[in-house]
Amino acid sequence: MSQSFPSLADIRAAHERIQPFVHRTPILSSTAINEIAGCEIFFKCENFQKVGAFKARGAANAVMKMTDEQKSKGVATHSSGNHAAALARAAKVAGIPAYIVMPSNAPEIKKKAVKGYGGEIIECEPNLKARETTLEEVVKKTGATFIPPYDYMDVIEGQATCALELIEEQADLDVILAPVGGGGLLGGTALAAHYLNPNIEVIGCEPKGADDAFQSFYAGKLIPQSGPNTIADGLLTSLGFLNFELIKTHVSAIHLATDPQIIEAMRLIYERMKIVIEPSCAVPLAALLADQDSFSGKKVGIILSGGNVDLGKLPF
């Protein structure tokens, strides 16, 4: 493995560094869901995290690792979702400016969150090229440090702290399921599991309508996302290069779920666990229920990635 990837000591140091700025989220289980699934599931509830998503970890770690000179000019990123809010909040805590490039069609709830944390939103056309060129202009004008949403070592290191907590509390897991979009959470999870207990299988879970990680994993080369179409709006992005390297080495499979399966799993969690999750968050449970035989009788950790959903637009 490349020396440039964070070590276990790096991940532990990140965990220590972000302590004052994030929650240690609870691990919940549901007897009813266990019976339906035919296995024992431990849900790591990052939907209860600051900013409502695991992204608070990576953003806080990246900001805290910046030099004073970098901090004085602030941070910038492009994101339509949880990373935008997470970076705006991390910047606010550090007392520095945050410039967030967001596509014009980003969910209103996510724009509100960024503004609420004092981030300055710069809107652009809803395509990757527009996001990247607008960000370049912002960085040029402000001198701010670009903190990418997922393909960035300090962010991956921060996201790895989630699985670190899960495995420390539930050491006897057979498998961990995590959603995959850009791959920061899955890459970090795979790295933490590799260090702490290499016997734990790590599986990425992805919507069928945005399956670039699935395609890339089984082709052995990075295949960019094209025309994604899924209710899981947090997983529309292309898999990152660094994360693909981690996933190729330490992830054992990628499983898919259809939108109807994702909606069913989302509803099941609302009804049985009485907690709010967003569609992207339901993908691992959906993938598990679609392939129950693979998990029969096992102890399964599932990372519930976030709970930022527009309650006026629930799919059920």
From TrEMBL:
By its UniProt entry, which InterPro entries does this protein fall under? Ser/Thr_deHydtase_PyrdxlP-BS, TrpB-like_PALP, TrpB-like_PALP_sf
The UniProt record lists the keyword Magnesium:
yes
Q: Where is the Tryptophan synthase beta chain-like PALP domain?
A: 19-306
- The answer to keyword Magnesium applying to this record is yes
Which cofactor does the UniProt annotation name? Ca(2+); Mn(2+); Mg(2+); pyridoxal 5'-phosphate
> What are the record keywords, sorted?
Magnesium, Pyridoxal phosphate
Protein name (database record): Pyridoxal-phosphate dependent enzyme
- Tell me the organism: Algoriphagus halophytocola
